[in-house]
Structure formats: structure tokens, C-alpha cells
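Morning. Coffee machine broken again, so started the prediction first thing and wrote up yesterday's gels while waiting. Chain of 112 residues, entered below exactly as on the submission form.
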Amino acid sequence: MKIVRNNIIPFKGYKAINIFGILFVRGDAVISSTDINHEEIHTAQMKEMLYVFFYLWYVIEWLVRLVMYRNAHTAYRNIGFEREAYMNQGSMGYLQGRGRYAWVKYLKGGAE
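Came back before lunch.
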């Protein structure tokens, strides 16, 4: 995964953002192997959704969950893509055995 350090992307208050498989890291933010694994899971999701559909689904699901939970952070943490990434970020071998569209099974579930 290509990592680009800069002081513009992401906005202040955020450590990193994955855009089309490139990880943009804020200034001197510390990025752990767990963080990188989380973002590599997102990159796998993006590839299987042909990038554009990943972002489209992500925004729509976040809006639906925002209506459900009425809390932006709770909505974000319950997006299927995020649930898969957070639940497996500590498993460094996860991507080797991950099936295509594995995030679908994380669509159901309660607020975290």
C-alpha cells in the first residue's frame, strides 16, 4: 500500500484516509500495522466494488444508518465495510483467506 504523508489530506483531526487504495497520512501521525491492515481491508473492498461503487455504497449506507442511529459516529462504525475492517484489523493474515464480498455478512448487527 502506498502511503503519502502530507498536511492537507486528511483534514485536521483525522490521522489517515484511504483514497482509491492510497493511504494519505496526516503529517507525523503514527500509523501502526493494525491501521495499515484496516486500510488494506478497505482497499480489497474497493477493488471488488470497482472503486466507484464502493464510495457510492459507503455514502448511501452511512446516510441510512445516520437516520437509524441519529449519531454520525455510530452510523460510521456500523457501515458494513467498517465493521469488517474493524473486526479483522488485528488479524494480519485475514486478507489471505478473505472471500470476495465478505463485508456483506457485516451488514446486519446492532450499534457498536
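The mean pLDDT is 95. Going to sketch it on the whiteboard this afternoon.
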